[in-house]
Amino acid sequence: MSNHHDWFMRKTAMSLIIVATSGMTLASADEVQTTPQSSYAAQNYARLKAELPYYEEAVNHPDKYPWPMIPATKKLLHVGSHSNVVLLIKQRLKTSHDLDPDSPQTDAFDQSLAQAIKTFQWRHGLTADGVIGTDTRNAMNITPDVRAKQIQMNMQRWAQIAQDMGDRFVLVNIPEYQLHVIDHDKDTLTMKVVVGRPTRQTPELASEITRITFNPYWNVPQKIAQKDIIPKILHDGSYLYTNKIRIFSSQEEGAYELNPGEVNWEDARENGFPYHFRQEPGIKNALGLVKFEFQNDHDVYLHDTPAHELFAKDTRDFSSGCVRLEKPFALVAYLTQNDDRINTATVRSKLISHKTSYFRIENPIPIYIAYLTTWVDTHGVVHFANDVYQRDSGTPPEQETSAEQSE
After folding, report:
1. What CATH code would you report for 4-146?
2. pTM of the entire predicted model
3. I want to staple 159 with a disulfide (CB 3.0 to 4.6 A). Which of 18, 34, 92, 297 is the partner?
4. Residue 196 pairs with which residues in a beta bridge?
């Protein structure tokens, strides 16, 4: 277990980062199989392995390392509250090193406890508001044996992700709702992402980003056309016009265009839509102004989005499988930084033309879309994310399909 100095160093690191960024059977660490060979993966594997004994100790010695369950309260607990539940919260946060172990064990909710709660919330991907609500309480009530098993599973995921990830690559971590650009083991660029909802999951994969499309069309997959677009048309007759969506006889070259008035929409809802929707480029396009393409069997890609308000949410599982980016043009800048064929002016020119254009990346960069629900950062701080697709629990939700994911 960490001593007081370890706690202080960890607590200081977490506080600085917060300000800056404002019944299972356990296996021992030695029994977790296969160490990854990639430098970046090996570092992450090793940091998780170093954290595992702490949770095993909490499981095996609950008298020494108490992990009390936090009961629900009628009112939100915040600074100024007095409650016996506060005593349990303090005990819980001392065990997880979020609260100074020498902090007074009273029933008063003070500023030091609020800061400790913010640290806990930040580590668990929650809004760091210092208030004990349902999500924070639920995260506190996940037992150490569950956390230990989670660490083991994620060690295995790092071991399986790649033998050699490369010197630079893009990593999308689905449960974290984040994209990282890693350049020689350094986290060079980070941004929020929106991933697929549980019934339309973003797949785990390894590929290479080879092409950037500016002002992309959105060729609407048939399942999205049937399940999402047609009901909206029946609800709002101007939907296609407002969203600049056109109808073609097929997606093939030479297909002819249809007038919406020629389509029996009730029949299309009941018996299937035999045509093809295509959304024109523009600010309302579901893919935004740019997308990033890579070979895969799921028809998914990274892209911009007009729905930027979703990035303000803690839980960002709203897409149909593709990954929406908070800062897509920061990624454009990184991928093209050493390429004389393109610069800020040429990108701007491409965008204001309102025409679709393609840019092939001279040196394709690997991309990994991974499912990692816990990790230890370079400051030694352990993080846990929501198991959005229930893969840790072994009871994943039923998906609609993975064959026609897009947007």
Report:
1. 1.10.101.10
2. 0.86
3. 34
4. 319
